[in-house]
Amino acid sequence: MRGRSRAGGRAGRFLALAALSVASCGRVGFDLLPASGERSEGGAGLTDGSVGTGGGPDDGGAGAGGKANGAGGLGSGGIGGAGAGGIAPNGGAGGAGGTGGAPDAGPPRCPDPVKPNPDPCARVSRLPASPTFDGLLDCGLEAHPIPTTNSLGDVQGSSASYAVAWRPDGLYFYVEVKTSRVVPAASADPVDLGDAVELFADADGTFPPPPPPHYDATGTRRLVISAPENRVASRAQGEIDAHLQVGFPKPWLSTLFRAFPTNDGYVVEAFVVGADLGVSPWLLSAGNEIGFDVGVDVSSEGADAGTDGGRPGGRYFVSFAGAGHTVDDAPDVNPEAFCKPTLDP
User: Which residue has the higher pLDDT, 327 or 211?
Assistant: First the structure.
């Protein structure tokens, strides 16, 4: 299977837990304030009953009531609240409240939007700013389904989507997995024995000619990221592999990846750089060709996170090398399975 046993030969090795470098600001396009902005009170109605000035530019507050039966102030700018009734000195009746103002359009959520590509296997979009790892798809990108028909073994109950984008110093991956059962591998076992995401990257989209197909000694890597251990805490436990290369697999100690729990599964974000591929420097620019693939590992129905961790059930991928969908066609064995897109400007 896959050129090596998934269960044998690696048990007992400890997979290191990578620390996450937390950015000090939100992800690309993230508003530091909610769209409604700050509240501001509307002005008081005048003593002669005319309408007072409204609230501030975002969520306009309630206009204060005018004196002597004056109308309440008109909330302006954002979602203005109704003006309060007029004050009624000497027994006079209160005036009517003002109406709310129209909402502000606010700043654009994506000031530098990415042009989505209908087929990332053909072309990969450029990410306008460095990614932030928060479990959310970075601004302007579009997620595409991973076909469960491109599968080996039992993958029922799982579905996934992915996005990929490039920066001058690496590749950004986002993978969202929907499943009712999340059982990662035990900490001493290979990561792909449980629920996990597999990322594949090649520096230039070219490989040694077959037969047999094999990874470049430098420039081609498989990166496996474990699913979170529970529905509360994120996790960064990964493994890096280079099929049949000496010294692999080994723990992936990068700080640029993490898995986040969701209500219906989990999300993986990662940024693959030249050091991960054994290429330094790895400088990307528009018009370059690269190689990539994405896969999802699904634990078996009998897996139990409370006892033995995950057990392999099946896997599915963005792309296979051939139509047969055999072990020899899968990207962890055969780099010819990789998508080989061009990088967009």
Answer: 327
3-state secondary structure of 154: coil
DSSP H helices in the chain: 274-277
Q: What is the pLDDT of residues 211-250, one digit of tens each?
A: 777 899 899 999 999 999 999 999 999 999 998 888 999 9
Q: What gap in Å lies between CA 164 and CA 293, rounded to an integer?
A: 10
pLDDT of 284-309, one tens digit each? Answer: 999 999 999 999 999 987 777 655 67
Distance CA 134, CA 257 (A): 10
Type of residue numbered 16? A
Q: Encoding tokens for residue 341?
A: 């897109």
Residue among 235, 207, 135, 236 nearest 177 (CA): 135
Residue among 186, 190, 238, 248 nearest 217 (CA): 248
Q: What is the pLDDT of residues 247-265, one digit of tens each?
A: 999 999 999 999 999 999 9
Q: Which two tokens stand for residue 291?
A: 């190689």
Pair of tokens at residue 266: 């989990």
Could you tell me which residues are beta bridge partners of residue 175? 162, 268
CA distance 256 to 271: 5
Find residue 235's DSSP bridge partners: 259
CA triple 127-28-30, angle to 5 deg:
155
pLDDT of 41 over the 70 cut: no
Hey, what are 245's tokens? Answer: 């290369």
Distance CA 107, CA 77 (A): 14
Classify residue 251 as exposed, middle or buried by CB count within 10 Å of its CB (0-12, 13-18, 19+): middle
The least confident of 18-22, 79-83, 130-134 is 18-22
